[in-house]
Design goal:
The structure holds two protein chains of two kinds. Chain A is of the alpha/beta class. Helices cover 33% and strands 20% of the residues of chain A. Chain B is of the alpha+beta class. The chains are: A alpha/beta, B alpha+beta.
Chain lengths: 160, 516
C-alpha cells in the first residue's frame, strides 16, 4: 500500500497545514483507490506507526518548525538511521519518534518521503493560517499527488 | 536571617507548557507557583454551537484521552435530555475507555516515568545498568515492548469506534457502530498476548495471583519472590533514590468513579441511578476517612489565574472563563484552581483505586503514606485490573450481540437545560458542565484531572496539590531538577495536547526546495 499521511492541528494556525492539504487532496483524487489511500493522522505520529507498518511507501505532509522563510516548501526523503531522543511527553511524540519507535520494535520502515512547509505562526487556538502557508496548500497537494502517481508508475509497484 | 531567593525552573523536559517558580530558603523550597503557560480555550470554542457539537469537539481536547472527554460530554447531554442508554452501548463505551486508559498508563509509566532512572544523575546507583537495559528510550526492553503493546491496545478503540484518537462514535443514547462477534474476537486476540506479557514481565505472576496481594506484608513477599518482575525492580529503584519519601501533597483524594455500571445506569435527573464498577468518592488522608462524593461541592477559583476575577469560588455550572492576561500582576497561570468543599484535592490512579476499595493500595498508603513511588505504582498495577475488566466487558458485549446499541432521541427530547458528565480518565477525575439555551451551548466548563493536580493557589492563598507536594523539598541543582520532575511525572501531567510539527531531529535527504 502507498499512503499519503497528513499531520496537523486545525486549531493551531500554521500547524493546520497538513489538514488543509488533506482536504485539497480529497477534492483532487478518489480515495481510497486500488493502490493508495489518503489519511489525516491528526497530531499523533506514534499512532501512525499502525499505518506506516502496513505501507511500502508513505508520503508525509506536515508543517515544519519555523526557522527559515515562511511558506518554503521542502520535499525530502526520510532516511533510516539513529535519531536523537529529546521528547517532552506522550503528548508530543513527533514523526522522528515514530520512526525511532519502528526501529526499536524491529519493524521494517517503508520508503518515506516528507513534504513540509515552513510555518510562520504557531499561535494556539487560531483558526487562521498565515498567508504564506495558506498559499502553499494547493501546490503541496499537487506535488503529493504527482509523487504518488510517479511512484505508482514505477514498474515494481505495478508488478508487486 | 537566611536569604530567600526565587528561581524559575523550566520543566519542559517533563511537560510541554509547565514551569515552576520556587522560593528557596537555605536550599529548601518554601513556596511554589505552578505555572501553566498555554491558554487552551476550549470552553470558548464551544459557545453558541449546537449542543451535540460538544461531543465531537471535546474529543479533540486531548490526543491521549479523547475517549474520556467524548464520554464525559455525552453523559452531560444525556443527563439534560433524560436519555436512556442500552447496556450494550455502555459496555462498548467502557471497553474503549479502558483501552485508552491502559495504553496511557503503560505509555506514561514506561515511556515517560521509568526512563528517568536512566538519568546520568543516577550513574552511581547500583541499578543504573539494569535501568538502562529495561527503560532506556527506544533501547530498553520494556520500553520497546510498551511501544508495541500500547499501539495494539488502541486498535480495540478503532475496532469498535472507527478511529483513535479523536473518535466520534458516541452519541446521546448509545454508540453509532453495531458490535458483532467478529469485533469481540478481534479484540480478544489483541488482549490475550498483552495480558500474557503483562503477567510474565510486569507482574511476574498471573493477574489472579497478583489481585490476591492485599496488604503491605504480602506486597513485600511478592517483591521478594518475584525479583525480576518490573513491579519489584521499579519498587527497589524508587526506594533506593527515596521516591517513597517525597511527593505527598493534598490531603484529599478525589474520584468520580470509573466505568458506568451498565446494569445500574440511568442518567436522568431525579430518576438517576448511577453506580460505577469502581465507585466514586473522596478520601481524607489526614482523617483516614472515606466520604461520599457530592459534585455540588466543587468550585473553581481564579484569584491567581489569568482570567477575569469573579471574587470567590464558583461552581462550574456557573463558571466563567474570560481570559485576562496580565504578566505584571501576582497571577501566574492559565490553570484555574478547583477545590472540593473548599479543600485542595489530588486525583489520579492512586486516588481512584483507594477510593474504589483496593485493599493493597489502602494498606500501602496507611503504612508508607502518599508518595511519588506509591502514586506511580498505582498507575502500573491499575493496568492489571483494567485488563481483567476489559475481558469482562468483552464477555458483556458478546452476551448482548443483537440487542440495541443506540436508542435514538426524538427532537422534542433534546430540551434546554443544564447538566454535567463526570468520569475517571486515565489521569483522574474529569468533569464537563454544560448549559443549553435554544439548542445552543450557552456555557461550558471543563475541569481536567491535571487542573486539580496542577492547580494554583485559591482565593484564600492555599497552594494547589503540586505546589504543596514540593514544599520542603531540597533543591540542589535547579538546572537538573530531577526530584521535582519525578513528582510532576508521578501525576502524568497533561497541560498540553496541542501542536505537532516536523522537528529538526528527523534525518532527511533533501529532494527539492521551492518557495512561493
Amino acid at each position: 500500500m502507498i499512503a499519503i499521511v497528513c499531520f496537523g492541528n486545525p486549531l493551531h494556525a500554521d500547524d493546520a497545514f497538513g489538514f488543509y492539504v488533506y482536504e485539497a487532496l480529497q477534492r483532487l483524487g478518489e480515495w481510497p483507490n486500488e493502490n493508495a489511500c489518503l489519511i489525516f493522522a491528526g497530531t499523533s505520529p506514534l499512532d501512525a506507526v499502525n499505518i506506516f507498518e502496513k505501507c511500502q511507501t508513505v508520503i508525509i505532509v506536515d508543517a515544519a518548525e519555523p526557522d527559515q522563510q515562511p511558506g518554503l516548501i521542502e520535499h525530502m526523503e526520510i532516511e533510516n538511521g539513529s535519531i536523537s531522543v529529546d521528547f517532552l511527553s506522550i503528548h508530543r511524540f513527533s514523526i522522528a519518534d515514530a520512526v525511532a519507535a519502528m526501529q526499536a520494535e524491529g519493524l521494517s520502515l517503508p520508503a518515506m518521503e516528507l513534504i513540509s512547509v515552513q510555518a510562520r505562526s504557531l499561535q494556539g487556538f487560531s483558526l487562521t493560517m498565515s498567508e504564506e502557508v495558506s498559499m502553499a496548500v494547493e501546490p503541496v497537494a499537487t506535488l503529493a499527488l504527482a509523487r504518488l502517481h510517479s511512484i505508482l508508475n514505477q514498474t515494481e509497484y505495478l508488478v508487486g | 536571617m537566611s536569604e530567600r531567593k526565587t528561581v524559575d525552573i523550566d520543566l519542559n523536559r517533563v511537560e510541554g507548557d509547565l514551569e515552576f517558580q520556587l522560593d528557596i530558603e537555605e536550599g529548601v523550597i518554601v513556596d511554589a507557583r505552578c505555572k501553566g503557560i498555554m491558554y487552551r480555550g476550549f470552553e470558548q470554542l464551544m459557545l453558541g454551537r449546537d449542543a451535540e457539537d460538544c461531543v465531537v469537539l471535546t474529543s479533540r481536547v486531548c490526543g491521549i484521552c479523547g475517549t474520556a472527554h467524548m464520554y464525559t460530554s455525552v453523559l452531560a447531554l444525556e443527563q439534560i435530555w433524560h436519555a436512556e442508554v442500552p447496556a450494550l452501548a455502555t459496555y462498548v463505551r467502557n471497553l474503549c475507555l479502558a483501552a485508552e486508559n491502559a495504553q496511557s498508563d503503560l505509555r506514561h509509566s514506561f515511556l515517560m516515568f521509568t526512563p528517568d532512572f536512566c538519568n546520568e544523575s543516577y550513574a552511581d546507583q547500583s541499578f543504573f545498568e539494569q535501568a538502562n537495559a529495561l527503560f532506556a528510550p527506544f533501547k530498553g526492553s520494556i520500553y520497546r515492548q510498551v511501544l508495541q503493546y500500547s499501539r495494539r491496545l488502541l486498535e480495540i478503540v478503532a475496532i469498535f469506534g472507527g478511529q483513535w484518537p479523536h473518535s466520534t462514535y458516541m452519541v446521546p443514547g448509545g454508540v453509532v457502530s453495531e458490535p458483532d462477534h467478529r469485533k469481540v474476537i478481534d479484540s480478544e486476540s489483541i488482549l490475550f498476548p498483552i495480558r500474557s506479557w503483562f503477567e510474565k514481565t510486569i507482574l511476574g505472576g498471573s493477574i489472579d495471583e497478583w489481585l490476591s496481594v492485599k496488604d503491605s506484608a504480602s506486597f513485600a513477599s511478592w517483591v521478594a519472590d518475584h525479583p525480576d518482575s518490573v513491579v519489584s525492580q521499579f519498587t527497589q529503584m524508587s526506594r533506593q533514590v527515596g521516591l517513597d519519601k517525597i511527593g505527598a501533597g493534598a490531603e484529599l483524594m478525589l474520584s468520580f468513579g470509573a466505568y458506568c455500571d451498565s446494569e445500574n445506569w440511568l442518567n436522568a435527573g431525579d430518576r438517576s441511578v448511577q453506580s460505577h464498577w469502581v465507585k466514586s468518592g473522596v478520601y481524607d488522608l489526614a482523617a483516614k476517612e472515606h466520604l461520599e462524593f457530592d459534585q455540588s461541592l466543587i468550585e473553581e477559583h481564579v484569584r491567581y489565574s489569568w482570567f477575569k476575577d469573579y471574587g470567590d469560588g464558583l461552581h462550574p455550572s456557573k463558571g466563567q472563563t474570560v481570559p485576562d492576561y496580565d504578566k505584571d500582576s501576582d497571577r501566574y497561570t492559565w490553570a484555574k484552581a478547583p477545590r472540593y468543599n473548599n479543600r485542595v484535592a489530588q486525583t489520579g490512579p492512586l486516588a481512584e483505586q483507594v477510593i474504589g476499595g483496593n485493599a493493597l493500595l489502602q494498606s500501602l498508603l496507611d503504612d508508607f503514606g502518599d508518595s511519588v513511588w506509591l502514586r506511580q505504582l498505582a498507575r502500573i498495577i491499575r493496568v492489571a485490573s483494567t485488563l481483567q475488566q476489559m475481558f469482562s466487558m468483552l464477555d458483556g458485549i458478546a452476551a448482548r450481540i443483537g440487542q440495541p446499541h443506540i436508542l435514538h432521541l426524538p427532537p422534542e427530547q433534546k430540551v434546554d437545560g443544564s447538566g454535567f458528565g463526570l468520569i475517571q480518565a486515565a489521569r483522574g477525575a474529569l468533569g464537563h458542565w454544560i448549559t443549553i439555551d435554544k439548542g445552543k451551548i450557552e456555557s461550558f466548563q471543563i475541569i481536567t484531572p491535571t487542573a486539580w493536580n496542577a492547580s494554583p493557589k485559591d482565593s484564600s492563598g492555599d497552594p494547589g496539590h503540586w505546589e504543596k507536594s514540593v514544599l520542603g523539598l531540597p533543591v540542589d541543582d535547579p538546572d537538573n531538577p530531577l526530584q521535582i520532575g519525578h513528582i510532576v511525572r508521578s501525576h502524568d501531567a497533561c497541560l498540553v495536547c496541542t501542536v505537532h510539527m516536523v522537528d529538526k531531529r528527523l534525518k532527511t535527504k533533501r529532494v527539492q526546495t521551492f518557495g512561493l
